[in-house]
Amino acid sequence: MGRRLRDRGILKILAPAFPTKTVNYSMEGEIMKNPLDSLWGTVIAGVALTAVLFVFARNFLS
């Protein structure tokens, strides 16, 4: 079997096992927004991350 994989190439053997078509599950007209694209989303995410890291550092480093 090792020689077979080496001779034909592993991609030719494994290619039929993996589908090549992609399926689009998103609905048309519906746009997902990134919360970090807005100023308030960035500020809220920064404050939340700072609070989590502060609690982590306070509990585990002292």
Describe this structure in words.
With 62 residues, the chain is mostly helical. The chain has a domain at 34-62. It has 3 helices and no strands. The mean pLDDT is 75.
Structural class: mainly alpha
Number of strands: 0
Q: In angstroms, what separates the terminal alpha carbons? A: 57 Å
Summed over residues and divided by their number, the pLDDT gives a mean of 75
Biggest beta-sheet profile: none
Query: Which consecutive residue ranges, at least 5 long each, have pLDDT under 50?
Result: none
Percent in helix: 40-55%
| H and E string | HHH
Radius of gyration: 24 Å
User: What percent of residues are in strands?
Assistant: under 5%
Question: Which term fits the overall shape?
Answer: flat
Note the total helix count.
3
What does the secondary structure layout of this molecule look like, with pairings?
Layout: H1 2-8, H2 10-14, H3 39-60
Brief description of this entry?
By secondary structure, this protein is an all-alpha fold. 55% of the residues lie in helices and 0% in strands.
What key attributes describe this structure?
3 helices, 62 residues, flat, mainly alpha
